[in-house]
Amino acid sequence: MFHRSSGGGDPMCSPAGSQQQEPPLIDLRQVKKAYKTPAGDFYALKGIDLRIQPGEFIAVVGKSGAGKSTLINMITGIDRLTSGEVRVGPHAVHKMSEDQIAAWRGQNVGVIFQFFRLLPMLTCVQNVMLPMDFANRYHTLKERRERALYLLEQVGIAEQADKLPSAVSGGQRQRVAIARALANDPIFLAADEPTGNLDSKTADAVFRVFEKLVGEGKTILMVTHDWDLASRLDRVVRLADGEIVADTEQVSVLGAPHRLVEANRQRRAPGGWTDA
Ligand code: ADP
How far is the CA of 273 from the centre of ligand 1 (A)? Predict the structure, then answer.
């Protein structure tokens, strides 16, 4: 296994050796997050530096309370950082207003949670259509439904489209949530314990959906407690007490290029960002 201490902004440290790395898709600099508590400010993140290249599939691991969810919340703009910088593609997330962040996230980021967070009164296909309704990216109802059905097919549950979430299994609900996260064709997915509520066989099937998406060009950051799943990834970032204590990349001893990053570099069309 190849170890390195940072997310790899330095082209000379590229796992490919001589290859020049493209700019990171996600670039965190000295990110700190303090929560107000009766005992004073509590720093859940203590100065995170992390760079993620387009096409990477990264596991974020660490004990409960290490700061994993807080990290996801900083990158996706779900919560505001206390100091530091978060850049995603051309967007300086730390400089945006709440309204700008909401619009940006709706169009560029797919977020997946442990407990799915589907709306129970909407059918599976309607749940997937919802982010499209908010972003107004796919204009007609017919277009949105067709896209939602296509996405449900991609995650293998098109036949459940018109059922309510309560009528499908946990693994199927998570697939609906993944399809919903893909609704506006985001450039990256942030998943917070997406398999934490699933049995190991179902977790494996959901994980394979993520692998397929990375193979198709998505970038995924996945918080997980499941070491079996994490060990299957090219890169594992370990947090402890609000700091990155390890950042590994599993490449061959010969220094072969990062498997998925390289594949996606070939595939990725220029641009791809939607302005907030
Ligand atoms: P993890 O996802 O690794 O379990 P979290 O990011 O949820 O960790 O939390 C990191 C630390 O920040 C924990 O000690 C937690 O108790 C604390 N924390 C999280 N949210 C809040 C909050 N809103 N107010 C105060 N402390 C918080």
Answer: 31
Q: How far is the CA of 69 from the centre of ligand 1 (A)?
A: 7
Q: What is the DSSP letter of 97?
A: -
Residues 6+ apart with CB under 8 A from 221: 26, 52, 58, 60, 72, 75, 188, 189, 190, 191
258 DSSP 8-state letter = P
**Per residue in 6-65, pLDDT tens?**
333 333 344 444 455 678 999 999 999 999 999 999 999 999 999 999 999 999 999 999
**Helix or strand or coil: residue 96?**
coil
Q: What is the widest separation between alpha-carbon atoms in the chain? A: 54
pTM for the whole thing?
0.84
Q: Whose CA is nearest to atom 24 of ligand 1?
A: 35
CA 2 to ligand 1 centroid distance, Å: 31
Q: What are the chain's domains?
A: 2-267 (3.40.50.300)
